[in-house]
UniProtKB/TrEMBL annotation:
The chain crosses the membrane at residues 12-36, 176-196, 208-229, 249-277. It comes from freshwater metagenome. This is Unannotated protein. The lineage of its organism: unclassified sequences, metagenomes, ecological metagenomes. Keywords: Membrane, Transmembrane, Transmembrane helix.
Amino acid sequence: MTNPIFLTAKRGPAITFAALSTVILIFLPIVSGVYLSVGKSNPAPKIANALLAKSEFRDAAANKLIENISKDSEGIEALLFEAKAKEIRAALSDAMGTKAFEDEVVVITQKAYNFYIDGDAQSGSIDIRPIASMALKAFSKVAPLLSLAEGQIKDIAPIALTSSKSDIDLKQIKTGFTGLVFVLWIGFILFSALYWRFASNLHNALKFSGIQSSVFAVISILIFLIGSAAGGSIGGNSADQLPQIAIPIVAQVLISPFLTLAILGLITTVVLVGYLYTLVKKQLKPSN
């Protein structure tokens, strides 16, 4: 027996709500992917994990750090960096690959996120001494003479995070964007439910919803593919080795939610089409 709440076969309202839900659907993959990528939580820990897991990135970052330190070094320190650059780079790269180093990077990025995005005034400074100490220990394994600088690390002052009234209120933007995502999803669900209320029959309703979920999946996968290509292109156009390696990795982390959305859209499509196929098969089955 047909449910009197749905499938009431009213063409005008069905077309109207189908159009409204489709308009919202076009924007849903975009805002949902962005929300999952950077709006829901801090993406920096995932980025740090992905970057530090790549030995190529660690080597390039170690090279960059050694280059910056050695150019300001004098005397014996300068000679050590010049003579043992390869060994120091390898030791520093290994140190950057440890769980302890990654944890400290995550702490730093989380404090910056809490301060600038969530407006947490308690996270107003970053202590870089733990990372500096790990780097120095890595140097000292190759050149023990550099361990003499260990006493200077405690004098490194925390980096103060500051913001001015003229800065963009990222917390307000995040809150507003989160609200927009939920409003769009509620609107889509509401208009879809109203379409089902006025749809002519179950076959048409299932077919239309299946088309919508496939469109959602296609838009999501297109964004993922375009983002991947753009990240690789931007990184490849850089003259510096570090961004060449880092940019594609960062891009991949940021756009990965779009692939998840595409998979969910495809699964939904398969379920709806499978159910529709079952209904059609039952109807076509000859009665005894």
